[in-house]
Amino acid sequence: MEQGSGEYFTRIGIGTPTREQYMVLDTGSDVVWIQCEPCRECYSQADPIFNPSSSVSFSTVGCDSAVCSQLDANDCHGGGCLYEVSYGDGSYTVGSYATETLTFGTTSIQNVAIGCGHDNVGLFVGAAGLLGLGAGSLSFPAQLGTQTGRAFSYCLVDRDSESSGTLEFGPESVPIGSIFTPLVANPFLPTFYYLSMVAISVGGVILDSVPSEAFRIDETTGRGGIIIDSGTAVTRLQTSAYDALRDAFIAGTQHLPRADGISIFDTCYDLSALQSVSIPAVGFHFSNGAGFILPAKNCLIPMDSMGTFCFAFAPADSNLSIMGNIQQQGIRVSFDSANSLVGFAIDQCQ
After folding, report:
1. Do 107 and 182 sit in the same domain of this protein?
2. In this structure, are 193 and 325 located in the same domain?
């Protein structure tokens, strides 16, 4: 399920007896959390807000527990662990840290450490909370540990699709034939999955104007690099890399009528009079020689019902680049943390 703010949702059962809730899929963060009664400040969600007093499997985590000490921001109240998580867009969640049973289909996982948020603000648009799938120690895949070999994959359906994708765990979730590339470790920010990207191509030509260090992590500060994030919609590139990509794309689309820019998108087209459109292929290339071409629908996205489409990239606000979920549509993306690999399988979403 995808909502207007750009996130993708999964349906998960919370507690005992189980109560199904929509959760945002987020590979860019670790902490799993849901909104909880009593609410001091909660946003609107699709399902009734979870009441922990109605679940026999809910258990508050103690202040001296190992999981409490692993939180980036924690406190203690009445012997119970408190958590706080803030996100780059200004959203945040604050509440008690606990363990609870989560149910995926017919499979239940007990004693999952989750945040029970009593004070939640942000653009979560209907979701009950967030399923942290990051690379850190408190993420859901890390908590599953050896049960799944710290491997999982997902496929995000197109935004205009009426079907749904899947989120799968375990080594068997990684499809044969995937294009694999190493994940890059950043000890300063262990939550993120950093890609070993070294180049971008347009129309089959590598852009020499994008130096490989544009996506390199600064070893002394941890800044820079490029991460893959299911919780971010639009791919944002370091400004120099974005400018080079945009200019090359424009050069290859001179035959298409232009339209005014919209919001963060500065390259838009009026395709209302066209039955079919040809655009130059955009490719991502990695340090081990692997690479893949983005589907055309992942490069131009509709902005309205009148035929306005925009180039689905934007400049980053910092030197950190992000591969967002628009560019991941229709691709089964797999994470093999045990072997520090990320995989891409085009058109293998079933």
Report:
1. no
2. yes
